[in-house]
Design a protein that fits this description.
This protein is an alpha+beta fold. The protein contains nine helices and four strands, in the order H-H-H-H-E-E-H-H-H-E-E-H-H. The longest helix is centred in the C-terminal third of the chain and has 69 residues, at 301-369.
Length: 414
């Protein structure tokens, strides 16, 4: 926005009286836009938060967190699995003189294997950390979409501002040419040419406004907001602490914990069984008894090897994915740095080119007012200056977008 105000002030100082009113209107328009922006409180971080609340990823991440917390509660339980109740009743009626009935009630309590509970708790802790890191990575991806949407709006606003300024210039020129045609200084063909150029600029301005409306609609659909924060072309951070890399590292740690659980779970859980027995026989006193039993399943290769192989494969896949992701992130950061440096150089070049063509247009305008230059030459000079100013505005928005993309590649949240 500052660049636009400076460019308008420069052109006011260098332009003749022909388009003074047009540029003054543009300055007032930009000034009112800057005042409206100053009154808003919406930041890019606010927009990301609003988009996150609307995204389905937030619900998915919340579900993963709840599932991890539920698994933590299960791993902290006293038993490795829910206890089971056994009830049995036996009646013997073959002896008619002394029928008997035996009742037995038992409780089966699954026990933890040595080291299994600690390994399971470690795995659950890793799952909670992985869920949190996954949420941060998902927010970063959404932040990238928000940044791109804001950049698109900024680019289209620059297009509209440039198109508006060019249309105002050509409209003022067309009116001046018609006045000079009426005075007999210029031919009717000059008025037709000037009006045709103005209508072409007005059509391009209408198309730019339509593209701006589409960009603003996309922003509103993504964030639910109508105000769009400005992407300032500030320097990006030098370090890199990427949420996606942290999430990949947590997934590797989760796979390691899973392998440890598999190592400590080479057999099914042993069971402690406590039984109470009550026997009643006709004509004899009833008898009662309590028994304790320990059931220890044996681990076999057919059971353990597939589980171990799956855990090892999961760990190897997680490590390979982390390496691949790190290479991708490093490549994206390198490319983003090159693009940001190139955009910064292009902005400087475009600003200098726009200044030169503005000065040339001023000289040609003075020559045209003196009757020394034909209208086609004046139109070409004016069009070249307007196009250069538009390219300068695009370069300013492109630099802000390139810086935003570099911050995104580095994993910097707004």
């Amino acid at each position: 926005m500052t660049m636009w105000r400076n460019s308008f002030r420069d052109r006011l100082r260098t332009s003749g009286p022909l388009r003074l009113r047009s540029w003054l209107s543009a300055v007032l328009l930009v000034g009112s836009g800057a005042q409206a922006f100053a009154q808003t409180t919406v930041t890019l971080a606010d927009a990301v938060e609003s988009a996150w609340l609307r995204a389905s990823q937030a619900t998915e991440v919340a579900g993963q967190t709840r599932r991890a917390e539920a698994e933590r509660a299960a791993a902290a339980a006293l038993w490795s699995a829910p206890p089971a109740l056994e009830v049995g009743v036996t009646q013997d009626r073959q002896r008619a003189s002394r029928p008997t009935r035996e009742t037995e009630i038992g409780v089966s309590l699954p026990l933890w294997l040595p080291g299994q509970r600690a390994a399971r708790l470690g795995q659950v802790d890793a799952e909670v950390s992985a869920a949190t890191a996954t949420a941060e990575a998902a927010r970063l991806r959404l932040a990238g979409a928000v940044r791109e949407a804001a950049a698109e709006v900024a680019i289209q606003r620059a297009e509209v501002a440039s198109g508006q300024a060019q249309a105002d210039d050509l409209q003022t020129l067309a009116k001046d040419v018609e006045r000079r045609v009426a005075a007999g200084d210029l031919a009717r063909a000059d008025a037709l040419a000037a009006n045709a150029e103005y209508l072409s600029a007005a059509t391009a301005l209408a198309q730019a406004r339509q593209r701006l409306q589409v960009a603003e609609l996309g922003w509103h659909t993504l964030t639910g907001l109508t105000q769009v924060p400005e992407l300032a072309p500030t320097a990006a951070a030098a370090g890199m602490d990427h949420p996606a890399l942290r999430a990949a590292a947590h997934r590797v740690e989760l796979a390691r914990r899973g392998l440890q659980v598999a190592k400590t779970s080479r057999r099914d859980a042993p069971e402690l069984v406590v039984r109470a027995r009550h026997e009643v026989a006709a004509g004899e006193p009833s008898t009662r008894g309590v028994g304790v039993a320990l059931r220890i399943p044996f681990g076999t290769a057919s059971r353990n090897e597939p589980l171990m192989a799956a855990a090892i494969s999961e760990l190897e896949l997680a490590e390979a994915t982390e390496r691949e992701l790190r290479q991708q992130v490093e490549g994206q950061v390198a490319a983003a740095r090159v693009a940001e440096a190139s955009a910064r150089r292009q902005l400087g070049d475009q600003n200098r080119r726009a200044a030169l063509l503005r000065e040339r247009a001023t000289l040609v305008e003075q020559s045209f007012q003196a009757g020394e230059t034909a209208l086609p030459e004046m139109l070409r000079a004016l069009t070249a200056a307007a196009q250069a100013q538009a390219e300068s505005a695009r370069a300013q928005a492109a630099l802000a977008q390139a810086t935003s993309r570099l911050q995104q590649a580095l994993g910097v949240m707004p």
